[in-house]
């Protein structure tokens, strides 16, 4: 008999935030059939559970599954036809035979995607049966691994190909979505579970698995055997898990037919707990629903997005105060977090012996070295007064040794007579030890002012199994949980949790920030880090921090400079280096050229904090990491997967750091960037480009390839000019002045800035705010002009033409246009929120203004270079170098009141193509001309050349300044610029007195000034993933 009923609910199940019963399935979403139990979590995500007896089902939380209960379950139907059951949502169809007495297998369970239109999949037809689980896992997008310790270039992310030992040690974890199949399956069957202690959930006692019945092992056909425990690397462990051990590697999981392959498989009666993610190519939806199930990524403290300083060195408090913090402050460099490596505590380097735990004596330390820090609390208080957060390095494996200042108290609490001088072993899964140790040893240091800990676990990922007797719990992930949820600290302070440690597996996104370990300094390592970081976003692990500059050896200055630039656009900016006098990451230790470039990158990073912090709110709400792959937005395009040294940086930017050295002859490094569909502003050239295209260009050392979506509004911090506030600790504070960068290429756009106090947990209680910025623009009576065809100058070649972009009704493409920019009243509130704000609104790629009004009141023009006027009162100015109009609202405005800026741009002669501002590469040419002038100036007394020999080049190099002095003459200046530029290039080519290498470099700078773009659509290639 066939029956059917409808379960009504929300169209998409919104899972509750942490609560007492949130780990159990909603009653209306639960379907029990025979020995199976299904929970329809959302219309695209289903939990599938099988147990030999009803008592075998579990509702406890795991590291993966924190919240299984939807506030309202999704709509679905259940149809029965005898023993056959079908659960159908809008997106999935699950079929199960309730009469089966065996665990999930191909004969009793099948799931099918019902929306293949969501994407075309390279493998399969959107149908899954259990025997496919291992192959499906390997077809998912890459994720991440525990660490880059010892890496010198790429490390494998194809987890199963590396075998169980690699997966066990590296916690190699795939992403939660798949382009090849359109779905993934997460196996949580062997996971440790938590109790329901409301004070602090802890590990439940380990269940004792019965050895698998040999008959149940034989009942599984060889072609349907599925890996039981990806970390299982021995028969002993396999049997202890209640699974079967095969004589040879399983065929369904690589590496097949190898001695170190996967050999442990589930029996026909093994407990199963599987999660089906059927999101097709909606990767963003997969991440959002994954974090609903597994818990949202918190918003790290604001200082985490600033600048860290770290070095393994025996610094004293005086060294740190004068040589580090003092130097950063004196040089106007940002500094927000001070990382003090292991020499803060007693070390015993000279002793060379082991302690009672068998570890190197002094590797673990809990007691200040008073030779270096005579009054730690007073020193940390001084740092906090400067606005600098502090973290200490901690290797915890030796427990509490007799020389520690908290030994007596911890020993007595753990039943050890202090007189015996017997150490207190490190047993982090023992709740009594953990609470005692955290309360006493760790708590004492926190009471002195330590803000968070840098855990540096290096004692093996089998520690808890080997030393504490618990399987399926690894020390990295468990330590991350313990330190991030410790109620003995975070429950007693308003501060929000933070940690610096390695990655421990699925669910680790809840415990930021990541420390990627001790890599070697090489171009190969730098080249891999962007890809490594963006792939981690595939499982919502969005806050990797790397040792910028590498750890194991000293990088050459160029490599270090490029590393700092990558750091400026990474999730976390943290330099670090080994204990080696020749390996120093203080940028002032490098020559002036490298120092200036690195300083600019660090200052830019500090300016980006409001934007990055706001994007961290998106990560919190949607599971979209700040740094992520373009394939999340364009999942159907091959190029989005193949260009792995570039990434989306939040919702508005695309960044492609240079990760190769410059050529010796040109001092330029080539870079090809794939620009996705849509219009993109190139910050270097000043052009608006239309994708999808491959944009190829060669960049000088000071140039960072970065692009913004047309119309983007990017909020940046501005140093508080009033009172000359220190650069140190600045990023801990919510800025009172914002620089709003408005990108050309779109007639309208908006951006919502999210903020909170940046330090406490109050944002989780609704204490946060948002400010909406938007603009609309239109052309004058003449209407938009089509961008001119780009002219590419090459020596000895005919000028080339590139395809013109489509005409747009926006101020960037017309003469006499207008723009209206709005700062909306703030929504929400939080303690410390600025009541008033000043604004600097900069329109890139714009003509000069004829008039500007603010809330209906005209403001005056500020003549270049009268910088004193800029800071004194409201006004507007024009910068020829960037072809940008800036409206300076220096008088702070009430954030609860709207601000409207209206700009009327000048009308240029009919002969002038206004769209050339964003299509002819003027901004890039201006910059390169200044570079070439400096290069020629520096040849004095070496290969002297005289300015009278290149007058046109000098004149071309001053065009941007001329425009700044007289913006109204912009049309005349730019109409004659190309002729000057080409004449100057010919003069340069004719400077016979100039050394050949210098001339080659200068000519390369100018010949590459106009970008050369491949406007041919990217050719489809075999799938990378």
Structural summary, described in words:
This protein is an alpha+beta fold and 1025 residues long. The chain has four domains: 147 residues, no CATH class; 324 residues, Glycosidases (TIM Barrel), CATH 3.20.20.80; 164 residues, Immunoglobulin-like (Sandwich); 96 residues, no CATH class. It has a seven-stranded antiparallel sheet with strand order 22-23-24-27-25-26-42, with helices on one face. Strands 30, 31, 34, 35, 37, 38 and 41 form a seven-stranded antiparallel sheet that branches. A six-stranded antiparallel sheet has the order 1-5-6-7-8-9, with no helix packed on it. The N terminus and C terminus are likely disordered.
Gist?
The chain is α+β, with helices and mostly antiparallel strands.
Which helices and strands, and how do they pair?
Layout: E1 2-7, E2 30-33, E3 36-42, E4 45-50, E5 76-81, E6 84-88, E7 92-97, E8 109-113, E9 127-128, H1 133-138, H2 164-170, E10 184-187, H3 214-218, H4 235-240, E11 244-245, E12 264-265, E13 272-277, H5 283-294, E14 307-311, H6 317-330, E15 337-340, H7 376-385, E16 389-394, H8 407-413, H9 431-448, E17 452-455, H10 463-468, H11 475-485, E18 499-500, E19 514-515, H12 523-536, E20 544-545, H13 557-568, E21 573-574, H14 592-622, E22 627-628, H15 639-642, E23 647-649, E24 653-655, E25 669-682, E26 688-699, E27 706-709, E28 713-717, E29 737-742, E30 748-755, E31 769-778, E32 791-792, E33 800-801, E34 818-823, E35 827-828, E36 836-843, E37 849-854, E38 857-859, H16 867-872, E39 875-879, E40 884-894, E41 899-905, H17 922-937, H18 951-957, H19 959-965, H20 970-975, H21 977-989, H22 996-1007, E42 1012-1014
Parallel strand pairs: 14-15, 14-21, 15-16, 16-17, 17-18, 19-20, 29-36
Antiparallel strand pairs: 1-5, 2-3, 3-4, 4-13, 5-6, 6-7, 7-8, 8-9, 10-13, 11-12, 22-23, 23-24, 24-27, 25-26, 25-27, 26-42, 28-29, 30-31, 31-34, 31-35, 32-33, 34-41, 36-40, 37-38, 37-41, 39-40
């Amino acid at each position: 008999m066939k029956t059917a009923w409808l379960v009504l609910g929300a169209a998409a199940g919104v899972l509750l935030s942490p609560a007492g019963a949130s780990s159990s399935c909603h009653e209306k979403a639960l379907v029990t059939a025979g020995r199976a139990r299904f929970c329809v979590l959302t219309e695209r995500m289903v939990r599938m559970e099988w147990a030999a007896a009803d008592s075998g089902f579990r509702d406890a939380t795991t590291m993966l599954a924190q919240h299984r209960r939807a506030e309202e379950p999704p709509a679905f139907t259940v149809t029965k036809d005898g023993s056959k059951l079908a659960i159908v949502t809008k997106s999935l169809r699950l079929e199960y035979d309730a009469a089966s007495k065996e665990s999930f297998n191909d004969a009793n369970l099948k799931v099918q995607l019902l929306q293949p239109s969501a994407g075309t999949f390279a493998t399969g037809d959107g149908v899954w049966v259990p025997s496919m689980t291992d192959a499906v896992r390997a077809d998912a997008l890459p994720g991440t691994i525990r660490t880059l310790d010892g890496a010198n270039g790429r490390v494998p992310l194809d987890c199963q190909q590396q075998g169980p030992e690699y997966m066990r040690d590296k916690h190699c974890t795939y992403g939660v979505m798949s382009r090849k199949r359109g779905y993934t399956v997460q196996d949580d069957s062997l996971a440790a579970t938590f109790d329901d202690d409301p004070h602090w959930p802890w590990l439940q006692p380990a269940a004792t698995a019965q050895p698998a019945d040999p008959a149940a092992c034989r009942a599984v056909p060889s072609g349907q055997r599925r890996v039981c425990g990806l970390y299982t690397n021995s028969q002993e462990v396999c049997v202890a898990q209640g699974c079967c051990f095969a004589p040879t590697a399983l065929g369904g999981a690589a590496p097949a037919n190898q001695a170190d392959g996967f050999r442990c498989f589930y029996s026909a009666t093994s407990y199963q707990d599987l999660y089906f993610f059927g999101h097709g190519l909606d990767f963003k939806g997969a991440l959002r629903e994954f974090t609903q199930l597994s818990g949202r990524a918190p918003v790290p403290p604001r200082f985490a997005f600033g600048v860290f300083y770290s070095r393994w060195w025996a610094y004293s408090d005086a060294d740190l105060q004068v040589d580090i913090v003092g130097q950063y402050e004196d040089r106007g460099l940002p500094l927000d977090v001070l990382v003090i490596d292991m020499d803060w505590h007693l070390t015993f380097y000279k002793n060379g012996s082991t302690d009672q735990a068998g570890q190197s004596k002094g590797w673990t330390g809990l007691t200040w070295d008073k030779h270096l820090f005579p009054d730690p609390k007073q020193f940390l208080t001084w740092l906090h007064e400067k606005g600098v957060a502090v973290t200490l390095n901690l290797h915890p494996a030796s427990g509490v040794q007799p020389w520690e200042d908290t030994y007596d108290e911890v020993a007595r609490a753990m039943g050890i007579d202090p007189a015996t001088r017997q150490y207190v072993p490190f047993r982090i899964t023992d709740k009594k030890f953990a609470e005692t140790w955290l309360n006493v040893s760790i708590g004492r240091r926190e009471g002195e002012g330590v803000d968070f800990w840098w855990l540096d676990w290096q004692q093996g990922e089998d520690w808890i199994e080997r030393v504490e007797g618990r399987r399926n719990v690894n020390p990295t992930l468990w330590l991350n949980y313990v330190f991030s949820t410790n109620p003995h600290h975070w429950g007693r302070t308003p501060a929000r949790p933070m940690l610096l440690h390695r990655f421990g597996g699925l669910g680790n996104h809840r415990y930021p920030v990541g420390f990627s370990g001790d890599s070697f300094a090489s171009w190969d390592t730098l080249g891999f880090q962007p890809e490594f970081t963006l792939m981690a976003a595939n499982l919502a692990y969005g806050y990797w921090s790397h040792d910028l500059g590498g750890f194991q050896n000293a990088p050459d200055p160029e490599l270090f400079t490029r590393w700092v630039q990558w750091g400026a656009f990474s999730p976390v900016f943290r330099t670090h280096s080994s204990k080696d006098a020749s390996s120093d990451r203080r940028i002032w230790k490098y020559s002036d050229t490298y120092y200036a470039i690195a300083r600019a990158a660090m200052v830019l990073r500090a300016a980006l904090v409001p934007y990055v912090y706001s994007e961290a709110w998106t990560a919190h709400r949607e599971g979209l990491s700040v740094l992520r792959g373009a394939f999340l937005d364009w999942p159907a395009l091959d190029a989005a997967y193949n260009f792995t040294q570039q990434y989306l940086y939040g919702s508005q930017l695309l960044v492609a750091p240079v990760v190769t050295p410059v050529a010796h002859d040109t001092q330029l490094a080539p870079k090809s960037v794939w620009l996705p569909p849509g219009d993109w502003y190139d910050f270097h050239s000043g052009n608006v480009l239309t994708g999808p295209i491959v944009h190829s260009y060669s960049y000088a050392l000071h140039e960072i390839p970065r692009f913004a979506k047309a119309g983007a509004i990017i909020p940046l911090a501005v140093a508080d000019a009033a009172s000359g506030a220190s650069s140190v600790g600045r990023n801990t504070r919510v800025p009172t002045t914002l620089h709003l960068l408005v990108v050309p290429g779109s007639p309208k756009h908006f951006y919502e800035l999210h903020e909170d106090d940046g330090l406490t947990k109050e944002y989780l209680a609704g204490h946060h705010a948002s400010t909406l910025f938007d603009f609309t623009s239109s052309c004058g009576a003449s209407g938009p002009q089509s961008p001119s065809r780009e002219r590419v100058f090459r020596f000895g070649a005919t000028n080339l033409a590139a395809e013109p972009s489509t005409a747009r009704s926006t101020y960037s493409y017309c003469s006499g246009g207008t723009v209206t920019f709005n700062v909306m009243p703030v929504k929400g509130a939080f303690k410390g929120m600025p009541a008033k704000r000043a604004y600097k609104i900069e329109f890139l790629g714009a003509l000069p203004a004829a008039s500007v009004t603010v809330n209906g009141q005209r403001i005056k023009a500020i003549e270049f270079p009268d910088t004193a006027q800029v800071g004194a009162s409201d006004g507007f100015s024009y910068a020829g170098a960037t072809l940008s109009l800036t409206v300076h609202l220096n008088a702070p405005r009430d954030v609860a009141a709207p601000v409207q800026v209206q700009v009327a741009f000048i009308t240029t002669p009919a002969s002038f193509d206004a769209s050339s501002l964003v299509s002819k590469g003027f901004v890039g040419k201006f910059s390169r001309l200044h570079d070439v002038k400096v290069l020629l100036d520096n040849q004095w007394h070496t290969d002297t050349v005289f300015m009278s020999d290149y007058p046109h080049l000098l004149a071309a190099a001053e065009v941007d300044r001329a425009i700044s002095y007289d913006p109204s003459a912009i049309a005349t200046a730019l109409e004659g610029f190309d002729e000057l530029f080409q004449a100057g290039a010919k003069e340069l080519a004719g400077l016979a007195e100039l050394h050949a290498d210098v001339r080659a470099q200068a000519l390369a700078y100018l010949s590459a000034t106009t970008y050369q773009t491949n406007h041919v659509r990217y050719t489809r290639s075999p799938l990378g993933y």
